[in-house]
Amino acid sequence: MGQPAEKQRRATYADLGAVPPNKVAELIRGTLHVFPRPAPRHASAESALQGELFGPFQRGRGGPGGWRILVEPELHFPDPDAPGEVDVLVPDLAGWRAERMPELPKTAYFALAPDWICEVLSASTEKVDRDEKMPIYAREGVRYAWLVDPIARTLEAHVLDADRRWGPAAVHRDAARVRVAPFEAIELDLSVLWAE
């Protein structure tokens, strides 16, 4: 008979402090995930999308305003498997309607779930983004999630239903010009995201 497998220690928020500053770290259900900083195409798509949304939705220039859109905010959600511990997620972009978050928190993290998140997919992050983070975003009531793939040149738009499940994704490709919730007030030219 073999020996029982040794139970792996659950990572905690304290373990994030040991991660080098040139890495992105997330804590999901007691597992520490450490990723390299985004590659150039990833960073370019993230920056371009933030630029397209910031003026009309955060500043109200050419759009309705009423949003707080942030790059790589640290989100803290209670870990249902470990009372007192948290899941720590860092989406590439996140947005809160200003009426839900009239002031920024005093903490270094956000405990209030965003209204919208965007993950820019890469080979090193896609599985975690899709299989681990998307269910947590649904559990926490994030209403809209976009998955942007700069290599496949796609934007997948997901909307949460009343049962906190993601409905079928609307997939937009290449140089499409689209209006996508929750930012349908402007037309988004996807070719801007794939600029070389």
UniProtKB/TrEMBL annotation:
Keyword entries, A-Z: Endonuclease, Hydrolase, Nuclease
InterPro entries listed in its UniProt record: Nuclease_put_TT1808, Restrct_endonuc-II-like, Uma2
Source organism: Sorangium atrum
Record lineage: Bacteria, Pseudomonadati, Myxococcota, Polyangia, Polyangiales
Protein name per Swiss-Prot or TrEMBL: Uma2 family endonuclease
Pfam families documented for this protein: Uma2
Domain Putative restriction endonuclease, first and last residues per copy: 19-190
Signal peptide from the UniProt entry: none
One term of GO molecular function: endonuclease activity
